[in-house]
């Protein structure tokens, strides 16, 4: 007795959601990565980077713009790796690993940057622009978790 493989009833919706997430993540990484090459963004990220225990001393070695450029290059490279994973499925795990690292680091700024958490009107708040990275972290974990048989998708 053979059993037919049951497919996901909304596979088209799932694939559409997957590609929207993939392309959206790539666009954001590319856009933010390009912005890192501007003096405005280089100055804006310094308070985050300087207080981080892993990266705080990097400004002793490199100037403000160089640090920002390197971060931007990592973000842009990860975006291209993610886009290439559409055609070359074996790159999904590498793109996922890059996304995990990028967004774990950005989320860690919530815990290492002074003044990130405040109480307003009795509610604990933070710079919510960083909280969006939780969803990106989840997507990176999904990509990293693709099994070998899933690479044919």
From TrEMBL:
This is Putative membrane protein YkgB. The keyword Transmembrane helix applies. It comes from the Bacteria. Keywords: Membrane, Transmembrane, Transmembrane helix. GO terms for cellular component: plasma membrane. It comes from Prevotella heparinolytica. The chain crosses the membrane at residues 12-34, 66-84, 96-117, 129-146. Signal peptide: none annotated. One of its GO terms (biological process) is response to hypochlorite. The keyword NAD does not apply.
């Amino acid at each position: 007795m053979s059993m037919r493989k049951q497919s996901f009833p909304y596979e088209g919706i799932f694939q559409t959601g997957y590609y929207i997430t993939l392309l959206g993540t790539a666009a954001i990484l590319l856009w933010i990565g390009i912005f890192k090459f501007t003096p405005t963004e280089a100055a804006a990220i310094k308070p985050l980077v300087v207080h981080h225990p892993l990266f705080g001393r990097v400004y002793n070695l490199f100037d403000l713009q160089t640090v920002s450029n390197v971060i931007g290059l990592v973000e842009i490279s990860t975006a291209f790796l993610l886009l290439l994973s559409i055609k070359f499925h074996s790159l999904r795990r590498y793109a996922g690993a890059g996304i995990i690292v990028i967004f774990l680091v950005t989320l860690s700024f919530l815990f290492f940057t002074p003044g990130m958490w405040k109480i307003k009107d009795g509610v604990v708040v933070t710079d919510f622009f960083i909280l969006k990275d939780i969803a990106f972290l989840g997507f990176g974990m999904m990509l990293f978790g693709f099994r070998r048989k899933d690479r044919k998708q």
